Every structure is written in structure tokens, then in C-alpha cells.
Amino acid sequence: MGSARIVVIGTGYVGLTTGACLAGLGHQVTCVDVDRVKVARLAAGQVDILEPGLEELVSRGLSSRRLNFVVGSREAVADAQAVFLCVPTPMGAGGAADLRAVEAVIEEISGTVPAGCAVITKSTVPVGTAQRIRALLGRGDVPVVANPEFLREGTAVSDFLNPDRIVVGSEDELAARRVADLYADLAAPSVVTDAASAELVKYAANCFLAMKLSYVNAIAELCERLGADIESVTDGMGYDRRIGRAFLKPGPGWGGSCLPKDTHALVQVAESVGFDFSLLSSAIQENIAQRDRIVAKIAGSVGGTLAGTRIGVLGLAFKAGTNDLRDSPALSVTAMLAAHGAEVTAYDPAVDGDLPGMRIMDDPYQVAKGADGIVVLTEWDEFRRLDWTYFADLMHGDAVVDTRNLLDPQAILNAGLCWLGLGRPRRHARATA
Ligand code: UGA
Question: Which of 101, 194, 274, 427 has its CA 20 to 30 A from that of 239?
Fold first, then answer.
């Protein structure tokens, strides 16, 4: 398509990354949102989400005039060659994706989108959505294309610019190829297929990752019971090229705005066509069990009962590099700790303000004061550099539960504290002294 006139509707982390990166690739991009305040801030170059590289890309787009921000999609699409839908598709009742935002946009643009302009779904939408949009649009002259994103929060810009693959699907093959061409400057293979297959690729990939994580968390639990070490087990597994090393780190469970929503949605979609996807349902159950096991581990580390204890939490975001708390396992774990009668204080480098059931501190050492136990729930790199001797001075107890296997156990033992990882042998200062 060369340089195309593109409209991106929705300025969340997917929409804003898509818009800013497409402008960076030389296209003329208009980003649309319904939120006036957000649009005004973005037009002034202010990016409120934590996404490395995004603010620079937005300001470069603004100064080159290849990127602009407006309210309302009806007029914005009038001379577009491609319209990307990047509006939220949250989990609705029963686990299915809630498509009201997508439907509202289609209603708004159906009269103004020009003939030949591709309407492209970017947000994760259920299989069959492209077909539904075609019917809603009621425009035989406007092709609908599914083009799922594979952007991780925290590395969205780099994922966009260095993709493993571009997936596009449509009943109109020419339109699908034109959309693939928008990414021609990126060195990545394209999979051009029908719309339903493209839509399913996204779910199949995210759910596979979720199952991989549930599996590794279960193996970590087995390691503890059998006296094995998960680090060596995953190291040994990772050499197998069919398995790979990525997504083999145990943790307090997988969370965020994508994996939990997409796993539930796929189970639901399977159910709707009479298929009991028990493999995936078990992965979801395992993810809930993982949080329970973490709480039991923390209780065990402070003498068996949480009531009346003080627990200092390091990390609240669902993973490092983001301030996103949506479906964060850390929040479920802290809520359970509080429900069992623990007094919870927490520190996260990207999170401030108040959260129910805990006190948020603005310095990691404040959570150590009088704490019976410390628990690491997000893998922020800065936690590796904490002064554990100072922690030991401030703490009342000696337990450090490291649910990300992030810390150097020896540094903690040297400080006279007890380190408890996941799927790893327990390390106790007194036992090694
Ligand atoms: C996920 C996918 O990785 C992206 O490819 C996809 O585009 C995105 O969803 C989406 O659907 O938009 P994201 O939600 O940003 O990206 O998070 P991930 O990096 O996948 O992490 C998910 C969860 O797994 C986090 O809670 C993380 O802490 C956990 N995790 C990840 C582990 O516990 N261990 C690992 O080894 C890797």
C-alpha cells in the first residue's frame, strides 16, 4: 500500500502502540478515542501508560505530523484506506468477550467509511466476529479483515516492530494482502488466511502460553514435593527445541488483561460448539490453585497461621515493566492474606495510591518494618539489588518468600534470613551457617 491513510480507533496500549508504530513506519495515522481528556493529553504528547519507547514514538509522530489524535470516529474515517478497531473487548457474563464497544464503533462508522477501505479487527475478538461485523456494517464494498496483535504489555513497541509473524485473515484475499502490506517494512513472515483462522490463531497462541505456564507451575509444585529443583528441570527441558525456553518461569500464577480473559473465552467458545475443552479448563483451575498454594506457603513461612502477622509485599503489577493491576495474581494473593487476618503493606515501583486491604508504601524498606515475612510477587529487577541486611534489621521475622525465584538466595541467607522460592529447595540461614 506504500504510505496509507490509517485510522486507529481506541487508544489503549494496543491502539496507541499500533497507531504510533504505523506512523513510525511512514503511514498517515489518525488515532480516535471517545475520551476527550485522553485525546487532549495525547495530542500534547502526554502518554499515561507505561510502555517503553511509546512516548518518544508519539512525540516523533506528532512533530512529523504523521500522527494526530481526534475525538469521534464518524468523520475521522471518511477518507481512510484502513481502519483498525482497537477498542476493549472485556470479559462479559459467563466468560464470553463483551463486544459492545466494537458494535458501537461499527454503528458509528458504517455510513461514512469509504468504499474499498479495510475495516480491521486488532483487539482480540471471538472467532466469527469479522463475519458479524460484515453483517453489521451492511457494506458489500468494505472488506473486513482480522489482524490480531501479539503485543505484550511492557514490550509492546518492540513486539510491534520486531514481530515473530503478521497474521491477517479475510474472505477478501486481496484486502488481506493489502493489510499485510502495511507491515511490509517489518522483517516478518505473513500468514494470510481466512478470517476465522486468523481470529483463532490469537486464542490458540495465548491459551497455549497459559497452559504452558500452568504446566510449569504444577511441575514446580512437584519439584518441591519430590526434592527436585525447577531451575534445573526447566533448564533441561528448555534445550529441547520443540519446547523452548520462553514461558518456563514459575510464578504466582498468570494474570493481566489478556491470558485470563482469552482462556475463559475459548472455553466458552468451545462449549458453544459442543466441545468440552477440559485441557484448557484444567489450566485455569491450576492457575487458581497456584494462588492458594502461594498463600499456604506464606502462612507456612511465618509459623502456620497468618492471623495477626505482618506481611510485606514486594510487587503488585501482574508482571514487571507495567503498572497494570488487571487480574494481577499479586492482588488475589494480598486479598487472601488480608482475609486470613494478616496486616499487609506493599511496595511496587510502578503503583501508588490506595488499594483496598493494604497500605501502599513509597519505598521497599518501609514494607520490612516489623514484618514477619516478605513476599515477592512481581519480578521487578530492582528487587535484586535490595539491601537484605537492612531488611533483616527492620523485620520482626525472618521469612522471605520469593514467588518469582528472582532474588539471590545467598544474599538473603548472608543477612540471616530464610529464603523460600518456588519449586526450589528451601534455604535457611541457620541450616547453612
Ligand atoms: C500476552 C501475550 O504474551 C501476548 O503475546 C499477547 O499479545 C497479549 O497477551 C495480548 O493478548 O494482548 P501480556 O498479557 O502482556 O501478553 O503478558 P505476558 O508477558 O504474556 O505474561 C502473562 C502472565 O504470565 C504474567 O502474569 C506473567 O507474570 C506470567 N509469566 C510469564 C510467568 O509467570 N512466567 C513466565 O515465564 C512468563
Answer: 427
